[in-house]
Specification:
Layout lengths: L1 H11 L4 H14 L2 H14 L4 H13 L3 H14 L3 H6 L10
Helix pairs in contact: 1-2, 2-3, 3-4, 4-5
């Protein structure tokens, strides 16, 4: 249901990077990492200032074994968002939010 809601909001607010991020988070939680990466790229295209978007994309790249891309996004996340590690610590692979 969350996925459908996000898709509807993207259709209504096409230029909103937020809804692409939220839908990417849903994809990530479902294990659909490439779809998450695609939506995160769209989110970044609209607004590239938010480090947590790069951090999530880095995690998705790692899940797919794309280590170089993951490391590039981690560097950008640290540059853009000073507390990215703390923020995403709440979404570690052991966290119930990610399962």
């Amino acid at each position: 249901m969350a996925l459908a809601d996000c898709t509807n909001m993207i259709e209504l607010a096409e230029r909103s990077s937020y809804y692409h991020f939220i839908r990417a988070l849903v994809y990530y939680q479902r294990g659909e990492y490439q779809l998450a990466i695609d939506d995160l790229g769209k989110s970044i295209k609209v607004s590239d200032r938010r480090g947590y978007v790069y951090q999530l994309r880095s995690r998705a790249h790692r899940k797919l074994g794309q280590i170089e891309a993951a490391e590039d996004d981690e560097k950008t996340a640290r540059f853009r968002y000073k507390y990215a590690g703390w923020y995403w610590g709440h979404f570690s692979d052991d966290s119930p939010a990610v399962r």
